[in-house]
Amino acid sequence: MKTNRIYSFLSIMIIVFTLNSCIEDGDFTVPDVTVIEPNITANSSITAIKTALQQEFNTNNNLVYTFHVNEATPTFIEAYVVSSDATGNFYRTLVIQDKAENPTGGIEISIDERALSSTYNVGRKVYIKLDGLSVSYDDGERNIDPTNGVAGKYTLGILDGDRVNDIPSTSIKNHFFRSGTVATIVPTVITLADITEAHVNTMISLASAQFEKTQIGKTFSGEANDSFDGFRTIFECNTEKELKLQTSTFASFKSNVLPAGKGTINFVLSKDYRAEFFVAVVNTPSDISFTDVDRCDPPILDCGNGTVGGSNNVFTQDFETINSGADLTAAGWVNENVNGGSTVFASRGFGGNRYLQMSAYRTNENPLEAWLISPAINLDSSTDEALTFETKTGYNNGAALSVYVSTDYAGDIATATWMLVDGAIADGPRSGYQSNFTQSGSVNISCLSGDVYVAFRYLGGDGDVTTTFQIDNIKISGN
Fold first, then answer.
1. CB-based contact 428:359 (threshold 8 Å)
2. How far apart are the C-alpha atoms of 465 and 363, rounded to whole Å?
3. Distance CA 152, CA 145 (A)
4. Which residues contact 435 (CB under 8 A, 6 or more apart)?
């Protein structure tokens, strides 16, 4: 013990002496953090990177292109950083776009390095030496083709076998050169209908958006069914189109509750892991300014909070005798694809139970909007009516199902007044199917009278939201 104390004392004295010897007149020397502007002139561009891969595909049917090493005249691009891993929502990834404002293209770079934001902060101008790097492409299609017009994702990295992998941390200094310029990134304001290839991997802004109503009360990615990433539905008010917000389950804000209002959201536009559908990725929750309490939800049925339901079964459909589309039509149901496609709700069975099922997966339809509408259900001879139903999901990558009621439907979906039903709808899991159906709970429809129609609307698309939904046990009960 005595020896240990002597060594500890001597160590302290050495440290003190060392510190004192580095201090002159009581002033600490401030480290020089000045960025020396690199003497580099860009001779290529992000657009040229994409063109090189497209030419490689057309010539050799190859989805990877490697830039040749030329020490005499190396190839450089200049760009601006738009991603940040400070909150953990980006991981070993740097996203850059070619201009700080009105960019014409962006690209994702895979780097085996953490804490990139401390060096490559948002707005930082960077020069990247392409020599020896490789670029790959994925558009999520069964036949991947960078010239097919489908917006895909280009990724820059190091060739590892036949695929592009992370640039090693030891190679960063050979390819990345920081400028002293830190620009203000001005997000491109567009609507979801205007998205093109040029917007992928750039900073985007939606001016009037909100989280879809069924998402309210959820966290960004802290729910039980969230694995690796959480997906939440952003609803664009003016166009009524939707986009998935993707948040890593390792993000520091994963357990934050989604804002319930309406407003503006800035994000990096990307595609999901399989490049099948567009996703929005925020650097921080502060990129979302949904502060307007005046939401743009469709009309919601509100019959009050009274106790409803009873022993009188006004309407029941369990689909046990429905084995085909003809059976469904004979039972008075309308099963319509409003965009003229062929995919509609189909009868399925499992474990001795029958139900109706819908999915956009491998349908070649995008958008896919299909409506399943019940026969007329008359409520004039009953009171205290409650609607209940059951749903189940499989391979969930987005909320594609919503439930409505109408009292003026006359065969034309577009001209009818549809009121959204606020019943619980299944949500999850991303891989496989739920074990059990989700109960909707009792939905109060007692303020309605006459003929009522219950409708299930599926809105998804192949290469976009493809969640499988199953519907069963639709019932209206009362007194």
1. no
2. 12
3. 9
4. none
**Tokens for 364?**
């070649």
Say if CB 441 and CB 388 are below 8 A apart. yes
Paired tokens of 121: 């902060």
Higher-pLDDT residue of 267, 26? 267
- When pLDDT is averaged across residues 72-83 and rounded to a whole number, the result is 97
Report the Cα 431 to chain-centroid distance in Å.
16
Tell me what the mean pLDDT of segment 200-210 comes to: 97
Residue 212, strand partner residues:
none
Q: Tokens at residue 394, please?
A: 């499989």
Q: Cβ–Cβ contacts within 10 Å for residue 406, how many?
A: 19
**Beta-bridge partners for 111:** 167
Is the CB of residue 396 less than 8 Å from the CB of residue 429? yes
pLDDT band at 22 (very low <50, low <70, confident <90, very high): very low
Q: What is the pTM of this model?
A: 0.77
Query: Quick one: which of 192, 269, 258 has its CA closest to 226?
Result: 258
CB-CB contact of 238 with 202 (8 Å): no
Handedness of CA 472, 235, 103, 186 (dihedral sign): negative
Q: Residue 225 — pLDDT band, cuts 50, 70, 90?
A: confident
Predicted confidence at residue 6, as pLDDT, reads 35
Give the span between the Cα atoms of 264 and 261, in whole angstroms: 10
Strand stretches in 185-287, DSSP E: 188-189, 203-211, 229-236, 242-248, 262-271, 278-281
**CA distances (Å), origin 295, targets 82, 210, 264, 267, 414:** 29, 7, 12, 20, 22
* DSSP label at residue 39: -
How far is the CA of 190 from the CAs of 230, 235, 408, 459, in angstroms? Answer: 24, 14, 35, 22
Phi, psi of 318 (to 5 degrees): -110, 0
- Count helices and strands in the chain by DSSP H and E runs: 4, 29
Across the range 33-48, mean pLDDT stands at 91
Cα dihedral across residues 188, 194, 198, 200: positive or negative: positive
- What is the C-alpha separation between 448 and 377, in angstroms, rounded? 11
Pair of tokens at residue 477 = 């009960």
Q: Phi and psi at residue 52, in whole multiples of 5°?
A: -60, -40
30 pLDDT exceeds 80? no
pLDDT value at position 7? 39
In this structure, the number of other CB atoms found within 10 A of the CB of residue 97 comes to: 27
Instruction: Write out pLDDT tens, residues 115-151.
Output: 999 999 999 999 999 999 999 999 988 889 999 888 9
In sequence order, what E strands does 26-171 have? Answer: 64-66, 76-81, 93-97, 106-110, 124-129, 134-138, 153-160, 163-165
